[in-house]
């Protein structure tokens, strides 16, 4: 039923809970797994030296965190006897990067964590999981943290 599972990770404990669920599903269906980490665009605008330096620092830190997140997820899949493919998608809004990756792969399931934000926090920060749910062509399993 499920042959290609996409698992977005962000280094949070919630995304690792999604990895645990994806392991069970991948084993049950003999599915291949791709782990993806999406790096947001540089969040600040400006001009001059400070802009370039800040952007470079941001991208360096974001790339290091993406590699850690991917490594942690791959280690969990490997410990469960499952091979994974990994992708880092740069300079994308997270939900768009996840959806585009799912389309590119032909993923037939997305397993992802949700931080369960409510009220003002959800309004201000948004919900990547909600946006993925709203636009995905494949089934989405949302694991709440």
Protein described:
This protein has a single domain, classed as HUPs (Rossmann fold). The chain is built from five helices and five strands; from the N terminus they run βαβαβαβααβ. It has helices at 13-29, 49-79, 94-105, 119-125, 128-135; strands at residues 4-8, 32-38, 84-89, 109-114, 140-144. α1 crosses α2 (49-79) and α3 crosses α5. Helix content is 52%, strand content 20%. With 145 residues, it is an alpha/beta fold. β1 (4-8), α1 and β2 (32-38) form a beta-alpha-beta unit.
Short description:
With 145 residues, the protein is an alpha/beta fold. It has five helices and five strands, in the order E-H-E-H-E-H-E-H-H-E.
Radius of gyration over all CA atoms, rounded? 16 Å
Determine and state the CATH class.
Answer: Alpha Beta
Low-confidence stretches: 120-125
Order of helices and strands: EHEHEHEHHE
Q: What's the N-to-C terminus distance?
A: 26 Å
What portion of the residues fall into strands of 2 or more residues? 15-25%
Instruction: Please give the order of strands in the largest beta sheet.
Output: 3-2-1-4-5
CATH topology group: Rossmann fold
Class of secondary structure makeup? alpha/beta
Q: Biggest sheet: strands, sense, closure?
A: 5 strands, parallel
User: How many structurally independent domains?
Assistant: 1
Number of helices: 5
Percent range for helical residues?
A: 40-55%
- Overall shape: it is globular
For the secondary structure, the number of strands is: 5
CATH architecture: 3-Layer(aba) Sandwich
CATH homologous superfamily grouping: HUPs
Mean pLDDT: 88
């Amino acid at each position: 039923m499920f042959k290609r599972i996409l698992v977005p990770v962000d280094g949070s404990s919630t995304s690792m809970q999604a990895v645990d669920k994806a392991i069970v599903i991948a084993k049950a269906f003999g599915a291949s797994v791709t782990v993806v980490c999406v790096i947001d665009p540089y969040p600040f605008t400006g001009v001059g030296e400070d802009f370039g330096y800040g952007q470079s620092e941001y991208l360096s830190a974001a790339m290091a965190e993406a590699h850690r997140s991917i490594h942690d997820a791959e280690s969990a899949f490997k410990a469960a006897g499952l091979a994974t493919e990994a992708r880092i998608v740069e300079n994308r809004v997270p939900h768009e990067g996840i959806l585009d990756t799912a389309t590119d792969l032909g993923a037939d399931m997305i397993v992802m964590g949700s931080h369960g934000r409510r009220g003002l926090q959800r309004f201000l920060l948004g919900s990547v999981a909600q946006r993925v749910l709203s636009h995905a062509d494949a089934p989405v399993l949302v694991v709440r943290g």
